[in-house]
Amino acid sequence: MKYTLIHPSFDPPEAKSPRELKAIADLFSSGETFPFVNYWSLEEGPIHLLSREFLDFLCSFKFGSNPFLDTIGKRRGVKEMPLSACGAQSATAGIAAALMTKGVGQGEVITTSLNFLGVPNAVMLAGAAPKFVDIDPDTLCMDMKSLEKAIGKETKAVLLVHFNQVVDIEPIDEIFERLKLDIPLVQDASLAMGSDNKGMPAGLVNLGGGATVYSFATSKTLSGLGGAIVVANDKTIIERIQTIGYQGMNFANPEELSSFGANFKMNDLNAVIVLEQLKKRVEIFEKRRKLKSWYDRELADFVDTGKIAIQKVGSGSIVTHYAILVPDRRAIAKKMADKGVMLGFWHACHLQKIYQDRFGTGPGTLPVTESVANRITFLPFHTKLTEKDVSFICKSLKEVL
Question: How far apart are CA 118 and CA 69, in angstroms?
Answer without folding.
Answer: 29
